[in-house]
Amino acid sequence: MEELPIIKKARAQGGRLAFRCGDRETSYDDLLHESVRVAAALLAGEKDLNEMRVAFLAPTGEAYAAVQWGIWRAGGVAVPLCLSATEPELDYTLKDSQADVVVVTTAYANKVLTLVGKLGCRLLILEEIDGAEPVAFPQVDTSRRAMILYTSGTTSSPKGVVTTHDNINAQILTLVDAWKWRADDSIPLFLPLHHIHGIINVMSCALWSGALIEPFARFDVELALARVSAGAYSVFMAVPTIYVKLIEAIRQMSDPGRKAVIAGFGGMRLMISGSAALPASVHEEWTALTGQKLLERYGMTEVGMALSNPCDGERRPGAVGQPLPGMQVRLKAESGAIVDEEGVPGEIQVQGLCVFSEYWNRPEATAESFDEGWFRTGDMAVIESGYYRIMGRLSVDIIKSGGYKLSALEIEAVLFDHPDIRECAVVGVSDRTWGEAVAVAAVLEDGRSLSLESMREWCRERLSVYKIPRRLIVTDKLPRNAMGKVTKPALSALFAGN
User: Fold this and answer.
1) pTM, whole model, 2 decimals?
2) Which CATH number fits domain 398-496: 3.50.50.60, 3.10.50.40, 3.30.300.30, 3.30.930.10?
3) Which residue from 193, 202, 207 is spatially nearest to 147, judged by alpha carbons?
């Protein structure tokens, strides 16, 4: 019987280590055996789950991978749940995905007990599954649905992004090729596993390649730096916030620990930043500190990764590179014209095998998201000397002020370097004169103060006059969604109330 590609790849790795967490080690054979146990329990005598949605809560590591593979081997559609989700958020996901089964580890059983009873879902607790093995697994065609990931909604409810096995295989193969994954690679995994960055870019690419993963329950600066100084990793992937925290921690260290950490980072073959814009200043500071040039890339839940700086070649700060193998990317101007020259902004539109199949039970939203077969990302970009640079979202990160189209992300990147500002976010707020005025919400460093005029004076040396902010709110924290991203509609509402 033909097996799913990721299962075939794992079988070829045999006794190699897939996960290591302290003294606990899990081989690829162990993963396969555990996934058989999960698949058997899910089938419960049936021949095929036939794309039944199976939601699951499992910690980062071998349990997550075994449950995911078990769902796929039984013919089901995996619906990863956020470990920190509230009951209303879990209720929404289970209802919207029409999940019939929920798989959890013992540690998370109490989070779903009430819900599964109310919704009539079958509950499977991983540690309580017996070792029975079915006679045969179903033949799962790679064109079938494999996973539903929920996007983090801002102005509307989250949508379920459906990817097939073909989509997932294409996403993995693209990155394994572009980023030169190897069986002797090792990588830490502390990114959330209800998001494509952790699921595909780290875990799936590593397991496809026969690499070793060290899972973390959450990002821990001290623990991560200890493992880095021990030379534990060859590949490292993180979001910009983590790189900022690492820079702060390293600068506070004393020798010889600091030298060991810098040597650990410097010895890695590849370091990647993604999921949010990386300020060029952070990119340059990281290089100055460790000798590593971070590789920035661009992607989203619906398309996997679409653009990337090269593994070999120039990694340009502030840019997200060029189309990955197998991805077709174009820019479409607001006028409807296809952008064919550099420096002209347009919406990023994508085609390729990596692109998702549909939004779950939302045919109208699916249709509206495509333009003659091209997926509309809603992100604006320009091409500069052959590299794409993200300007921001069409809806909230592009500010139309005084006849100019301004990138909120560009202004944020400059303000990030202000000595009094710890965090900031920029939005456009309604203004009678300017149409939209550039507005900044800032979280300050301890003991600092900041006035609008002093900030504007500081900006005058760093920004064109039409980009200088006209509004400022100092706040204790920025509004964020479950993924940790700033919710700019909520930010705009904050300005409306002041």
Assistant:
1) 0.84
2) 3.30.300.30
3) 193
